Automatic annotation (TrEMBL):
Domain Peptidase S8/S53: 249-504
Any Pfam family the entry gives: Peptidase_S8
CDD domains recorded: Peptidases_S8_S53
Protein name in the entry: Peptidase S8/S53 domain-containing protein
Matches recorded under InterPro entries: Peptidase_S8/S53_dom (IPR000209), Peptidase_S8/S53_dom_sf (IPR036852)
Domain of life from the UniProt record: Bacteria
SUPFAM superfamilies reported for this sequence: Subtilisin-like
Lineage: Bacteria, Bacillati, Chloroflexota, Ktedonobacteria, Ktedonobacterales
Length: 544
C-alpha cells in the first residue's frame, strides 16, 4: 500500500455492535399524535420509564444531550427524539431515543442493565397504559473504530481495467450492465414512474458536478448522464446530502485479505446509484446520505429517513417506491444470542423469557419495515458479506443480516461472473423463507472472470484517489459485494413496479426459480443451494 493511503485506511481497536448508553423504546399509541404533541408524548413516556429505572440507580436522558454529545463538540444538533410509524394500523407506533445514565459511579456500559429491567417489567408498564413492544440498543449500521462490527463491502474499490474499442471521437465507451433473458419483461418506459430511494453514503452534489468537468472523467458516460440528470432538476437524479445529520464515529470495511479495515467510501452510494441508472434508465433516483464517508451510521438516521418515507407514501408524494438498502444492521441471527447472553446461564424454565428478550432487541426495527411494506414499498436489502472465513474453512455461508432477513424485504446475495457463490457472500434466506435472490456482485481478490480480468462489478467512482493510493484516471472502479447485487435487483424491481406489479408479487416473482421443473411434491430446489437463493442473471460488458 502506498504511503498516501495511510490517511484513508485504519484498523479498528475493538469489536462492538451498538452505541454504548443509547436506547430505543418502541411503544404502541392509541392514535397518531399531532406534531406539537410529540414532545409531550416523549416526556410522558420518559417519566414513566424513569419511575422504574431510578430504583436501580439508572435514568434516561433526552437523546442528544449526553454520551457522545458531551464528549464531541462537533456532534450534530438533535431536533427530533421520537418518530411515529405504523400508520396503516389503528394503533400506530412511536420510536423514542434515549441516553441511559447511571446515578452511581459504576463502570462500563449501563445499557444492557437498563434494557434487562425494562424487558422484565413490560407487564408492569402495561398496567399504566404504556405498551412497550420493543426495547433495543441503538444498533450500528455496519461498524466503527471503537464501535466496530462486521460490515462493509467485500473488499475496497480499486481502478477498473483500462480497455479500448474503436469508436468515434464524440462517443463515450464504458462499462454497461444488462439483464439476461429470464422470463421477465422490462418496462417499455424504463421505469420512469418509479422512485428508487438509495440510503447510503453520498458525495456532495457540487462534487459530482465538478467531477463531470474534470478532463480525465469527461469520457465517463455514466458520470455525464447523472450530472445531466442533476442539471435538469426534474427529480430524475437528486442527492439529499445534508437533510439528515450523520456522525463520523461509525466506520466499516474489509481489506483485500478480508481483515477488518476501515477506509473512506463516499463513492459507495454513487456507485450503487450508477448501477440503478444503467439498468433502469428513466427511474427517479434519490440518493439520501444515510451513512457517513466511512460507510457507517446508527439506527437514528435509519428511523428518521424511513419514517419520513412512510409519511410521503401516505400523502401520495411518492406513488411507486423501491428502497435500496445496501447496508446491514445487527449481528447475524446465529450470533445474537451469544452476544447478548455471553455471560449468563439460563435455567430451562427461563428460556422462554430469553427468547422474548431476543425478539424485543430487534422487533422495533422489523416493525418499521413491515410498516413500509404495508404501504406498498418494495424494500431490497443486502444479505451481507461476512462469510469469507466460513468459506475458507469449508463451512456454510453465514445467515443474512437484518433487514435482509425480514419477511417484508427482498434479500439479495452475491454470485460471481460465472454465477457461482462469491466467497464472501452470506446466504439469502433463513430456512424456511423463500424471498431471496442472488445476482452478480463480483468476488474476492485473486478471482478472475472468463476474460482474465478481476471478477468485480465495474461502476462509477469520482474520488481522485482510491483507498490503496492509486490515482483515479477514468472514473471506473472495480468493487465487490452484495451491496452492488442489491442495486441490480432494485433496478429490476423498479421495472416490475412500473408495470403495475405489487411489492409482494414482485418479491415472489423475483425470488422464483427461472423456469425450473421439479417432480418433488414439497417444493423446487433453489439454483444456488448453499446460498438458499435463485439466480437473476446480470452481465456486464465494455461497449458504447
Amino acid at each position: 500500500m502506498s504511503r498516501s493511503a495511510t490517511e484513508f485506511m485504519g484498523t479498528p481497536a475493538g469489536l462492538f455492535h451498538w452505541i454504548p448508553g443509547e436506547m430505543i423504546v418502541i411503544a404502541r399509541l392509541t392514535r397518531i399524535p399531532l406534531d406539537d404533541a410529540l414532545d409531550t408524548v416523549f416526556e410522558q413516556i420518559r417519566t414513566q420509564l424513569n419511575t422504574l429505572l431510578t430504583r436501580y440507580r439508572l435514568t434516561l436522558d433526552p437523546y442528544g444531550t449526553a454520551g457522545r454529545w458531551e464528549e464531541v463538540p462537533t456532534m450534530p444538533l438533535v431536533r427530533r427524539r421520537a418518530f411515529v410509524f405504523g400508520l396503516h394500523s389503528q394503533q400506530p407506533l412511536v420510536a423514542l431515543f434515549f441516553h441511559v445514565h447511571p446515578l452511581d459511579t459504576r463502570e462500563g456500559d449501563p445499557l444492557p442493565a437498563a434494557l434487562s429491567y425494562i424487558h422484565a417489567h413490560v407487564a408492569y408498564f402495561a398496567q399504566f397504559g404504556l405498551h412497550i413492544v420493543s426495547a433495543m440498543p441503538n444498533w450500528l449500521v455496519t461498524a466503527a473504530p471503537l464501535l466496530y462490527s462486521d460490515g462493509g463491502p467485500g473488499l475496497p474499490p480499486r481502478p477498473a481495467p483500462a480497455l479500448e474499442i474503436h469508436a468515434p471521437p464524440q462517443a463515450l465507451p464504458g462499462w454497461h450492465l444488462r439483464f439476461a433473458a429470464q422470463g421477465l419483461t422490462l418496462d417499455a418506459r424504463n421505469a420512469e414512474d418509479v422512485t428508487v430511494v438509495v440510503l447510503d453514503t453520498a458525495q456532495h452534489p457540487d462534487r459530482i458536478r465538478s467531477a463531470a468537468t474534470r478532463p480525465e472523467l469527461r469520457r465517463n458516460w455514466l458520470l455525464q448522464r447523472l450530472a445531466e440528470d442533476m442539471r435538469l432538476e426534474d427529480g430524475s437524479f437528486m442527492v439529499e446530502y445534508d437533510r439528515y445529520p450523520v456522525t463520523n464515529d461509525v466506520r466499516t470495511g474489509h481489506d483485500a485479505a478480508q481483515r477488518n479495515r476501515y477506509y473512506l467510501m463516499p463513492d459507495h452510494g454513487l456507485f450503487v446509484s450508477g448501477i440503478i441508472r444503467d439498468l433502469a434508465p428513466r427511474a427517479r433516483i434519490r440518493l439520501v446520505r444515510a451513512l457517513n464517508d466511512f460507510g457507517g451510521s446508527d439506527l437514528y438516521s435509519l428511523f428518521a429517513i424511513l419514517t419520513d418515507l412512510e409519511h410521503e407514501l401516505i400523502s401520495g408524494t411518492i406513488r411507486r417506491l423501491v428502497i435500496n438498502l445496501s447496508l446491514t444492521v445487527l449481528p447475524d441471527f446465529l450470533r445474537l444470542p451469544y452476544l447478548w447472553f455471553q455471560d449468563r446461564q439460563w435455567p430451562t424454565a427461563q428460556l422462554l423469557g430469553a427468547q422474548n428478550v431476543l425478539t424485543s432487541l430487534e422487533e422495533g426495527l422489523r416493525l418499521l419495515f413491515d410498516s413500509l411494506f404495508a404501504h406498498g414499498a418494495l424494500i431490497v436489502a443486502a444479505a451481507g458479506n461476512d462469510s469469507y472465513q466460513a468459506f475458507r474453512k469449508g463451512l456454510p455461508p453465514r445467515p443474512p443480516r437484518a433487514p435482509a432477513r425480514y419477511s417484508s424485504t427482498l434479500s439479495v446475495t452475491s454470485v460471481n461472473s460465472n454465477f457461482l457463490p462469491s466467497q464472501f457472500a452470506n446466504a439469502a434466506n433463513l430456512p424456511a423463507d423463500t424471498s431471496g435472490v442472488a445476482t452478480f456482485g463480483g468476488d474476492s481478490a485473486g478471482v478472475l472472470d472468463q476474460h482474465g480480468l478481476p471478477d468485480a462489478v465495474r461502476g462509477l467512482f469520482i474520488s481522485p484517489t482510491f483507498p490503496g493510493g492509486e490515482s483515479n484516471l477514468t472514473g471506473w472502479a472495480d468493487w465487490s459485494g452484495s451491496s452492488f447485487s442489491t442495486a441490480m435487483i432494485s433496478a429490476l424491481g423498479a421495472h416490475l413496479l412500473a408495470q403495475g406489479w405489487s411489492a409482494p408479487n414482485s418479491i415472489t416473482r423475483l425470488s422464483m426459480g427461472q423456469g425450473q421443473q421439479s417432480e418433488i411434491v414439497f417444493g423446487t430446489p433453489v439454483d444456488i443451494s448453499s446460498l438458499l437463493a435463485n439466480i437473476v442473471y446480470t452481465q456486464q460488458r465494455f461497449s458504447l
